[in-house]
């Protein structure tokens, strides 16, 4: 039996700007732990580490896979060494440790992840982190989790089939420019001939058949947990997730309810199938086949 993968360890660096700010930091740490990321926070250490705060900070910064830096104006001043000497010694100490770790890592920035709460401006990011990728919370929390969990973007399709593009049609001219016809027929051809009427084609598949095909596709692509995550990270994810039945239902029932929700909200369209292609590129042919059915219904 393979050994379980080691937990991703997160250390949160921040300043105690206010009780509300500290409460948001605690909520961030609790939420990261909820999604399976082992998060270390000074608020979890009560009454305090036995070896003292400086040693504790140094040990945890070195042990962490990622350091989430909650940036604020106060945090920037203290990390950048612009605060009064008698204020914020803890944050200044952390700032020196981070600076040394960056130096040892030859400026490899992947370990340090700045975050900004609410409308906190980018100017609150310390100078040594100005060029780092940052996340704005709460809206950016799912992307932060993907970053810390090491989830990469879906790869492009492998060896996609060549699709032959039809030749570009020749340019058309006004019928009056039928110069040869003017000589042979004695005058220009008529320019106001009515275009033939083409009856609209009826779709060869019913909406119920298309929904059944989509149902079978989703069941074959994902487990129930994967389908819930797919919904949660997509458009209107929070609202759709809250409307889905609980975890006790089967994958088939869950899929049926999801399709009904998507149909109700007008979300059964090209964007859905494009997300499926990105999520499961190796099933692109099957996804395209069902997508064509829905495209035919829209004619």
Q: Would you give an account of this structure?
A:
It is a single-pass type I membrane protein. Its main location: membrane. Keywords: Glycoprotein, Membrane, Receptor, Signal, Transmembrane, Transmembrane helix. This is TIR domain-containing protein. About 20% of the residues are buried. This protein folds into two domains: about 10-150, Rossmann fold (3-Layer(aba) Sandwich); about 205-295. With about 300 residues, the chain is an alpha/beta fold. The chain has twelve helices and five strands. The model has no long low-confidence stretch (mean pLDDT about 85). The radius of gyration is 30 Å and the shape is elongated. It starts with 8 loop residues before the first strand and ends with a helix. Strands 2-1-3-4-5 form a five-stranded parallel β-sheet, sandwiched between helices.
Question: How would you briefly describe this protein structure?
Answer:
The protein is α/β, with parallel strands linked by helices and 299 residues long. Helices cover 45% and strands 8% of the residues.
Defining key terms:
299 residues, alpha/beta, Rossmann fold, 2 domains
List the helices and strands and how they pair.
Blueprint: E1 9-13, H1 19-34, E2 38-40, H2 53-63, E3 66-71, H3 73-79, H4 89-104, E4 112-117, E5 135-137, H5 141-149, H6 179-185, H7 207-221, H8 224-232, H9 237-243, H10 251-264, H11 270-279, H12 284-297
Parallel strand pairs: 1-2, 1-3, 3-4, 4-5
